[in-house]
Amino acid sequence: MSKVLIIGAGGVGGVVTHKCAQVPEVFSEICLASRTISRCEKIRDQLRSPIKIASVDADITHEVVELIKLESPDIVINTALPYQDLSIMDACLETGVNYLDTANYEPPDEARFCYKWQWDYQDRFKDKGIMALLGSGFDPGVTNVFCAYAQKNYFDEIHTIDILDANAGDHGHPFATNFNPEINIREVTAKGRFYENGQWVETEPLSDHMTFDFPVIGPQKAYLMYHEELESLAKNIKGVKRIRFWMTFSENYLTHLRVLENVGMTGIAPINYKGQHIVPLKFLKAVLPDPSSLGASTKGKTCIGCLIKGVKDGKRRKIFIYNVCDHEESYREVKSQAISYTTGVPAMIGAMLMVTGVWQGKGVFNIEEFDPQPFMDKLMVYGLPWQVMEVSE
Ligand code: NDP
């Protein structure tokens, strides 16, 4: 029996709250806190069992400290934005509470996410005797666990990993993003980067692509991007020679994005408009559909997995470990589309493994550092079943 404090009542926070509420034998008490209380109320009203809600500005550490002291949770799940990671980690340090998130820290004024800022908390978390689990979403998250599982069960040596993220869903809007528009557009418009033979190779934004025949959803054009799990996997999957990340985008999405970029709407430097400082990307976010509102209209499926090549018992081997998730089924269950669903379920599972003591540690951890088996088992139980497909060379 444990108490969980979830911070951030957006698309992902809503799914985490629903999923924790489905397991009262583990999460006996839930508090959902966010900057805008009406978003917490909306999620609370969707649930059958009562939860507490609170308002908090997670940019302000002492507000989070006060809330933690008031609620005394066993764990804080951070489903706010990457900008709040450090202030929430500081609050967890001050109060001695375990921490989990789904995205690594990114400074608001610089589109440069990396783990350094959070890995720097290692000694402080260790000394305090608490644990931080970083990146317990789908990618990062499940994809990292897929790699650890493959390393443990399918390979003696892993040579290459290609993480492939496809969304073949249609939300019915001319242009919208499936998770926070600001974070999504910062990620997509950044330069591509992949790891090869101990080096990082940089590419122009969305300049490389390939077509991959995904199970269930069929062939899709996927673009090479930098993604945060590459950084920890390059460190933790011993001997890997190359790791890349690919994501699918429709021509329609890319055309809109190109136009928005060309007219300056994706910029993150503030501009002066009639005496007011406005960040174009934040303004764009305000006029785009809220991702948590897309659930009702989104149809189709996602398929996300890891294509892994290496050697087992002296023979070359190639496998694809993947999950397929249906937008409409996700909506029926938790009132969210599959992107939020595939992120929220692993956050709940990571928290469950922490509060039940299955995954234990003192310090800051990436998810692939733990035994993947219990996590893989729970994916099957809690809504993200996976498969392993042998692929011929
Ligand atoms: P949303 O924008 O839908 O939700 C974010 C929520 O956080 C909003 O309710 C927002 O409140 C709240 N919030 C923002 N700033 C603060 C603050 N200072 N204090 C308190 N609450 C705040 O985003 P998503 O749910 O789509 O994404 C949530 C996180 O999940 C992001 O970090 C994203 O990068 C990550 N993610 C991870 C994925 C993975 O697979 N690992 C995939 C998808 C997302 P308000 O309404 O007031 O703005």
Give keywords:
393 residues, alpha/beta, 14 helices, globular, binds NADPH dihydro-nicotinamide-adenine-dinucleotide phosphate, nine-stranded mixed beta sheet, 18 strands, single chain, Dihydrodipicolinate Reductase, domain 2
Query: What is the global morphology?
Result: globular
How large is the radius of gyration? 20 Å
Residue stretches low in confidence (pLDDT < 50, at least 5 long) are none
CATH architecture of the domain at 142-336: 2-Layer Sandwich
Mean of the pLDDT scores? 95
CATH topology of the domain at 142-336, which one?
Dihydrodipicolinate Reductase, domain 2
Query: β content, as a range?
Result: 25-35%
What is the name of the CATH class of the domain at 142-336?
A: Alpha Beta
How far do the termini sit from each other? 48 Å
